[in-house]
Request: fold
Amino acid sequence: MNAARYALGTAGVLLGLWGVWLISGSADEEELVNLAVWLAAGVLAHDVLVAAVSLAVAAVAATVLPQVARAPATVALVVVGTVTLVAIPFLGRFGASPTNETLLDKNYVAGYLGLVTLVVACAVVSTVIRVRRAPDHTAAR
Amino acid sequence: MRLAPSSEQFTSRLRSAHVAARVGLWLGVCFGICFVTGLVSHYAQEYQQPVPFPTSPAWGYRLTQGLHVVTGTATIPLLLVKLWTVYPNLFAGFPRRGLGRMAVTAAERASIAVLVASAIFLLATGLVNTTRWYPWEFSFRSTHYALAWVGIGALVVHIAVKLPVIRDVLLGDVDDDDHDRPSATSEGSLSRRGLLRTTWVAAGVTVLATAGATVPWLRQVSVLAVRSGEGPAGIPINRTAESARITDAMVGPDYRLTVAAGGAETVFGRKDLVALPQRTERLPIACVEGWSATGDWTGVRLRDLLDAAGAASGSDVIVRSMQERGPFTVTRLPANFVDDPRTLVALQLAGRELDLDHGYPCRLIAPNRPGVLQTKWLQRLEVQA
Reply:
């Protein structure tokens, strides 16, 4: 098992070095600096920004929402959060071209809001079902 | 005041190796699919191919590139949840004694830094590229390709390092607490199985929201598809005539397509092309950015045209466009594509005259070929010796 792991690890290092060699051959100094900025910015965007926002949202949800709504809300937040990240280049339309009407040619704001509404509606319906199924529901009434 | 938290402050039992390995397994599968399909796409675009890219199946490139973009997009929620489950490890203490242990820990942390940085880079640049947004100074194609090797290498190292843990937790129950941090004990509103299901749902929703650009029956569902699928003759456009600086004067009655073979040149006006036997082929146009569509193309079979110009079969053809700039102004069509009966110099799409944005007066359309190599506004075909 350990021999296999060392072999695997060595193979991984070689694959990675091949990639480094490829990039060092195809990019000039300015491009390499820009690439380094992008690599670092990606890690910081996640480890600082995305992580902090998700911790803050979770903290707020935990204080604001009743216990019964928390699980559906967590599911909805994970789905909405990832969809929102994916939606950024669509909502911003940064790649849109004035001469090309076939590119980014949907109403992304409406589509995104519709999708978010659908996910939130699912979470609300799920919460209502959980409340009705709760053992103390009839007693509380 | 400490700016960074310590790993003991993260108490959720969801942040466990048992969850991380299960999400990581699918993350690895998706990265593997992306890597292999990416290699296919990169090779298909190589100017010189030691082994010619196959012409069949005609939908092959459409499938591999569609898979590349769809699995890449599905990876975004998987990566986010994976990073969430292991986030406390970012703040784990560093060994203060033992040079060997310190070196091993440093090497492992470095490999993870490379893995995370390249994974985020590949997904972010890939997603942004599907929308044709290029907010960077480097070449997308060569950088995305090189970083894919770095990323897959770092992933293989990571699997090698974690293999005993991965095996333990995947063979055990998801709710086991071996391999958990001592502080990871608090029950939240969601179970571990619940979090895993949530992750699969998030990946599924992300795919459904975007895949309509390449899967026709998802067009209405995919609210974040990069293209609606509409366009002249029912096919979207990647590069317009205007952006390629093709003017009306260039495609007027004086337009000529030159075929050069064996030192002789034969010139065809558009009327000459129309007078040759016309064929119709149903072929996909599959863009490297992941969108694709099927069209009924009508025109002259390339082999027929070359025969009319007296060119023998079995030779590569250099294809030149009238566009003056751009990385694919000149492309090489390997002999197997040249001689494939489905390869056309197309004059019509869906029974209508080719739109200027689709390459009027004529364009190349061949089976199983990346969209960027389906040269529009043909100017010159040079049969190689």
Observations:
- Chain B has two domains: 7-218, 249-383.
- The helical segments of chain B are 17-44, 60-86, 99-130, 140-171, 192-210, 270-275, 302-308, 335-338.
